[in-house]
Design goal:
With about 250 residues, the protein is an alpha+beta fold. It has two domains: about 180 residues, Beta-Lactamase (2-Layer Sandwich), CATH 3.30.450; about 55 residues, Winged helix-like DNA-binding domain superfamily/Winged helix DNA-binding domain (Arc Repressor Mutant, subunit A, Orthogonal Bundle), CATH 1.10.10. It has nine helices and eight strands. The protein has an eight-stranded antiparallel sheet with strand order 2-1-5-4-3-6-7-8, with helices on both faces.
Length: about 250
């Protein structure tokens, strides 16, 4: 594939001149972003689709691959060509195209409610690290194009690249993208009952199985039974993955 940053930008989301009214959206937003970055464990950066660069990159080290935040900001999309595994670069371009195709079908008034999530490998000191990448619109043009988007980077709970999903705020549905068949499938989020939520809340607070059993007046074996059912529901392997799943999907 060509190493051209313009490959990541599509005519469907070309952002030209910005009006005075559109610029009014920007008041103090970078200060808010910086404050969010100070209290978050995630790496945060902002894409400017008009200028085709990174407007902001946080100091959180996961996304930096040994560079300073300012160095990564200046690299912009060249960063991907240098630090994303070759196999995953083609995947990112396909996700970009599929994401904008999906986005075009959404009413303009609802576009800020949607977030796309996917996994790919970053090369950090010659070690491939699988990260989860979430992108959500910050500012739109009057025509509904994404002008600026916030990206959140954290360690993935999966084992392979892909896992492409779109979520809508306040909606129990989500859409998963099948790369091979090039289609989006509509699905529903996992539903947890109150007992399962109680167990996860106590796990999140660091309680042991025996301590949780005492708190909710059931046996440790019953806790293990519920935990096993939770893993099956969420298709995860351990409690750390389960907690990541419910956090990422806003179930807890």
């Amino acid at each position: 594939m060509s190493e051209n940053v313009n490959d990541f930008f599509f005519p469907k989301n070309t952002v030209g001149n910005i009006s005075v009214e559109e610029k009014d959206q920007l008041k103090n937003y970078l200060q808010v972003t910086e404050a969010f970055a100070r209290v978050s464990y995630m790496s945060i950066y902002i894409i400017d689709y008009q200028n085709r660069n990174f407007e902001y990159v946080s100091d959180n080290p996961l996304f930096l691959c040994g560079h300073s935040a300012d160095e990564v900001r200046k690299m912009g999309y060249d960063f991907y060509f240098k630090y994303v595994k070759k196999d995953d670069l083609d995947l990112l371009l396909k996700i970009n195209q599929a994401g904008f195709d999906f986005y075009e079908r959404i009413p303009v008034s609802e576009r800020k409610l949607y977030t796309i999530s996917y996994d790919f490998h970053l090369l950090n000191k010659d070690k491939a690290v699988l990260i989860n990448h979430k992108l959500t619109p910050l500012f739109l043009t009057e025509a509904g194009k994404i002008w600026k988007a916030m990206c959140l980077v954290s360690l993935s709970t999966h084992t392979d690249s892909g896992n492409i999903t779109v979520f809508k705020q306040g909606n129990n549905e989500f859409w998963s993208y099948d790369v091979k068949e090039d289609i989006w499938r509509n699905e529903e989020k996992v539903k947890l009952n109150e007992r399962e939520l109680d167990i996860l809340r106590y796990y999140a607070q660091g309680y042991t199985i025996n301590e949780i059993a005492e708190k909710i007046f059931i046996s440790p074996d019953t806790i293990k039974f519920h935990r096993r059912k939770l893993f099956e529901k969420m298709q995860v392997n351990n409690i750390s993955e389960a907690l990541s799943y419910v956090t990422n999907n806003k179930l807890l």
